[in-house]
Specification:
37% of the residues lie in helices and 15% in strands. It is α/β, with parallel strands linked by helices. A 6-stranded mixed β-sheet has the order 4-5-13-10-11-12, sandwiched between helices. A 4-stranded parallel β-sheet has the order 8-7-6-9, sandwiched between helices. Strands 2-1-3 form a 3-stranded antiparallel β-sheet. The protein binds pyridoxal-5'-phosphate and zinc ion. Zinc ion binds next to loops. Pyridoxal-5'-phosphate binds next to helix 9 and helix 13.
Length: 414
């Protein structure tokens, strides 16, 4: 599907595909991609998508701004189509009528970020770019490195020195050039932009490259297929709990639903609930203050994937929640850690940022912001294996015993 035009999310200026760069040259605003089906009478056929046998995001090609990238038989073809679970025990515990958890740890590099990096790899093929640079707290970098390894691109990843060890090991294993920056994610972000400019690298940064949101919107298409199409007629609108750092996942999912709405494939927008860590809550702060600009914070949450001083897609994530009639909720690091074993009891192993969404759902229920009759989906964005230290700190340690039955009996009866 071809791109009709780009629009600036701050000033509304429109750019043709030929003139558009990464962001609006007037104000640095994020660019939104508009596809031809929005304005043309010729619309893609939903039956064709629903009948597709492609088990990945590429089943939605008619709604994506890239050509089929090829690379069959590589991890690039295994991005998306992640499972949605209906954890009965959690549903009963929470007293909800419907609960789904979409497990994004099932993507090739074990986080939601593969969706964005796959689209970026497809775009790079179209514009004949061979080196991709990205700043990341870990997951976006791992996804970029994994997709680069799948498609023969060179990846250069800038991560804060404090990134969890597993994420750094994953980057190096995929063969990326890894630069650890003595500083914050925000500082790594600025350095990667300067480096891309200086060395002519293609830049994938979240909330900078307009194609990341186009990849992330595929989660909305899957939720449409997996959940919305199964909801009984007359149901309340689906509420989706999404962990928010830069805001690009939340905005991207909203964009996906806007696409479906403009096609007439859905009749109303699902309600989006953005969950931020109390110690990294720039967008939630703006929402609570009814502000139209986002003031940076000094992020200090242990949920590294949502630890952001200045959200790079904050404005669109703020407006998406407003437009969907949702809200923001903030959770403490303690609530985030507690949510890890709670999800674990349903067989889902989440990293702290992913568990934050579930913590937000629990807080909304506790504080009476959620009608238990509302259907709810929680997005579990990344695997617990990404940050084993955090998971270990959230559970009691295992006993160590002599290899004897007596020793076992002692601890078993404790
Ligand atoms: C990146 C990430 C998020 C947050 O996404 P943003 O687009 O930065 O809001 C949440 N969870 C995980 C696991 C992530 O990797
Ligand atoms: Zn602008």
């Amino acid at each position: 599907m071809n791109i009709a035009y780009y629009s600036c999310s701050v000033c509304g200026a429109q750019y043709s595909p030929r003139e558009a760069g990464y962001v609006c040259p007037l104000d640095g605003g994020n660019l939104t991609i508009h596809l031809e089906f929005e304005t043309s009478a010729k619309k893609p056929d939903p039956k064709r998508v629903l009948r597709s046998r492609e088990p990945s995001i590429w089943r939605y090609l008619p709604l994506l701004p890239v050509n089929d990238p090829g690379f069959h038989g590589t991890p690039l073809r295994q991005v998306g189509c992640t499972p949605v679970y209906q954890p009965e025990r959690l549903r009963q515990e929470l007293g909800l009528r419907h609960l789904w958890v979409k497990d994004e740890s099932r993507n090739p590099s074990a986080s939601f970020k593969d969706r964005a990096s796959a689209l970026v790899a497809a775009r790079m093929r179209m514009v004949h770019q061979h080196t991709v640079a990205a700043a990341s707290t870990g997951n976006a970098g791992a996804a970029t490195a994994c997709m680069a390894a799948s498609t023969g691109l060179r990846a250069i990843i800038f991560a804060p020195r404090t990134a969890p060890q597993a994420k750094v090991a994953q980057l190096l294993t995929y063969g990326a050039r890894v630069i650890l920056v003595e500083g914050t994610y925000d500082q790594a972000f600025e350095l990667s932009l300067a480096a891309s400019h200086t060395f002519g690298w293609y830049n994938r940064n979240t909330g900078y490259n307009p194609f990341t949101a186009e990849g992330k919107k595929t989660a909305a298409f899957e939720i449409w297929e997996q959940v919305l199409l199964t909801l009984p007629a007359g149901s309340e609108r689906l509420r989706i709990y999404i962990p928010v750092g830069d805001g690009n996942i939340l905005y991207g999912i909203h964009k996906g639903f806007l696409d479906l709405l403009s096609l007439g494939w859905i009749e109303s927008l699902p309600i989006l609930v953005g969950v931020q860590a109390e110690k990294s809550a720039a967008i939630a702060n703006a929402f609570f203050a009814r502000a139209d600009t986002i003031a940076p914070v000094r992020a200090a949450t242990l949920a590294d994937s949502i630890s952001v001083d200045l959200p790079r897609d904050g404005l669109r994530a703020l407006n998406a929640v407003r437009e969907s009639k949702g809200h923001y909720v903030t959770v403490s690091d303690e609530e985030i850690l507690q949510a890890i074993p709670q999800l674990g009891k349903a067989g889902i192993f989440a990293e702290p940022a992913a568990a934050a969404a579930y913590a937000g759902l629990r807080k909304d229920l506790r504080e009476g912001r959620l009608n238990p009759e509302s259907p709810v989906l929680v997005l579990c964005t990344g695997s617990g294996l990404k940050d084993v230290r955090a998971a270990a700190s959230a559970v009691p340690s295992a006993p160590i015993i002599e290899p004897s039955l007596q020793a076992l009996e002692k601890v078993i009866h404790d």
